[in-house]
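Me: I'm a chemist; would you kindly supply a protein sequence with its C-alpha cells?

Assistant:
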Amino acid sequence: MRTGSAGEPGARIGALRAALWLIAAVLAIRQVADVLGTPRGERLIDLETWLGPDGVLHVAGSLYDADRFTGTPFAGLVLKPLASPGEQALGWAWTFGTLGLVVVLGLVAARALPPPVSRRTSLLAAPVAISLLILSLPVRNTLHLGQTSILPVLLVLLGFFAVRGERAGGALIGAGAALQPTMLLFAVLLWCTGRKKAAASTGLTFTACTALAWAAMPADSWAYWVHHLAGAGLGASPDAGTNQSLHGMLLRFGLQGPLETGLFLTLGAAVAHLGLRRAVRCAEDGQLLLAVAVTGCVVVAVSPTTWRHQLLWVLLAVVGRVGSRRCDRYVWPVTVVLVSTLPATMMLPNLPVTQPIRDNVVLLTALAAATAVPFLSRTHPRYRDPIPTEYAEPVPARWSRVPLVPFWRRVVTRPNLLLELLLIRVGYSAYQQVRLAATGGTISGGRATAEHHGEQVHAIERFLSLDVERRFNHLTARTGWLEDFFDFYYTSLHFVVPLAVLAALYARRPAAYRWARSALGFATVLALIGFWAYPLAPPRLMPDLGFIDTVHGVQDFTKPNYGTLTDLTNQYAAMPSLHFGWSLWCGLVVVVLASRWWLKALGLLHPFLTLCAIVGTGNHWVLDAVGGAAVVGAGFGLTHLLSGPRASPPPTARAAAPVSGTPRDAAKDRSPK
C-alpha cells in the first residue's frame, strides 16, 4: 500500500511532465509549419540580404547598403560560412536550428531557477519555458526574419549557468557582446559580483572578435563602428514601433538632434546605474537568473536600436517574485507573458490617450524590471509563504456524476485590480479578434449563407407570430425622439453598464464579483461559438425585407462590404445577441444582489430597453435575444456547476460590518463589564 501511495504522486508528475512536453512539441511543429508555409520572399526577410541570384548566400558590396542588416560586422562574419547551401535548404536548417537554440535556452533557464525550486520542479518548468519562448514575439520574429538574436542571449546564459570556469564563461559572454555590443554591461555585473576573471575574459573576447571582423571586413567595420556610431543609425526607420529602446521612444516623441542625443545618453546612464545596482543585489541574494534578466532589460533600454526580435530579456524577467499576497503574486508574470506574446493593441485600446504607453509597452516593462518593480528578496518572509487567499467552505457537487473542478475554489476576497484589468482587456481583445475572424466570407459561404440564415430565422418567427421587428423598426424610424433614444441606447450603453456593474461588484461585493465575472466570461465564449457556427444577417442587412438602419444609415447592398462596414466588425455576428445577453446579465446580477427595490427595477428595465433598442434599430431579430438569454443562462449554469453556488463574504468581513444599533450601542458593547 505504501509503495502504491508513494508512486502515485510520481506517476501524476510524470504524466504532467509528458503533457507539458507534448504541448511544447505541438507549438514547435505549428511554428515550423507557419514559417515554412510562408511564401518565399515573405520569410527570412533579413536573411535575404545575403541571398544572391543563384539562391545561395552571397553579399555584393557592403552589408549595410540595403538598410536591412543591423547586426555587427562580427555577426556578418559568423554568417559567411553559410554561403554554400541553397535557399530552400537554408530555410529548413535555419528554422530547425533556431528552434534547437530555443530548446537549449529553455532548458538552461529552467535549471537556473533559484531555490526553493527543486530539480523536479525545474524539470516541469523546462517545457513551460520552451512553450513561452516559442509563443513569444521575439522568437516568432526571429524565425520569420532570419536573425541571430537568440544566439547572444543563449551565450550569456551558458556563460553564467552552464560552463565551468570563469574564463570560459566570460569568453561566451564576450562572444555574445560581439554580436550585440551593449551586452558588455554583463561584464560590469560580473565584475561587481566578484567574478573579475570572467569580466576580463568578456572584454578580451569581445575585443578579439571585433578585431577579427575588422581585419576580415574593414569597410563594413568602419561603416558600423564609425559612420553609424556603433549601429545607432542602422535600420530604415529607427523611430518605428519595433525599436523598443529609449532612443526609439524619444524619436517617436518627436525629439531630434543634439537634444535627443543628450537626453538619450542621460536617461541611458541613469537606467544603467539603477539597473546594474539592482542586478548586483539580486545576484548577492542568490537570484542570479533574475540578475541576468534585469541586466538584459537594461541592455534593451540603452541600446540605440532594440528591435522586436531582441527582446527576450523581458520574458526572462518573469522569474522575479512580486507581492506579499498570493493573489498579487500572479500580476508580474502575467504582465510579462502578455507583453512578450501579444501585440500592444490587445493590451491597450486604440485611443490617443493610450498611444504613448501602447507604442512603448515593451520598453516600459523593461524599464520597470530594471528600476522599479519591487522584487522580493529570498530573505523576505513572504518570498516563500505569501499571505494566503481566503476561500469559502467547500460545497458538494450539484450532481454526483458531475464533480466540481477541484482547483476552482470559491474565492471570497477581492482579486488584484491590475490583474483583472489586464485579463478583461486581453479577453475582450481576443473576443474582438475571433468575432472579426468569424465573418461569413471566411467561414460558411459569406453573405449568401448569412442571408439564408436570416430567411430561416424570419420564417421561424412568422410561424411563431414573433415577427414584430419590421413594424417596430418603422415606428422607431418615424418617431424622432424614439429613434434618437434607441440609437443612443444601442451605441452607448452596451459596454458602459456591464463595466459599471463589474466595478461596483469589485468595490462592494468582491465574492460576488468573481461569480458574476465568471458567468459573463462563459456566456461570451458560448456566444463566439454561435458566431462561428451560425453566421446570421441582421434585419437591416436583409435587402428584400424593407428594414431601416437607423444607426448606420442607408447601406449600399450592391457592395459586398456595405461601404467598408464589414472591414471594421463582423456584421453577421447576430446570433446570439450579446447586446441583449450582456444587458440581461447586468439585470440578473442587480436583481440577485441589490437590496433596494428600485435598483432591482432598474436592473429589470435595462434588458427590456436593450431589447427594444436592438429590434427598433433593425440590428437584431427577436430570436437573437432568445439566443442571448440562452448563453447567459448557460454561463450562470456552468459557473454553478463547476464551482458551486455563489460564495458569501468571509466571516471576518461580516463581523466587521455593523448590522444594527448605533455607535453608542457599539461603544457600550466594547466597554469592560
User: Anything to note?
Assistant: Residues 9-372 form one domain. The first helix runs from residue 2 to 36.
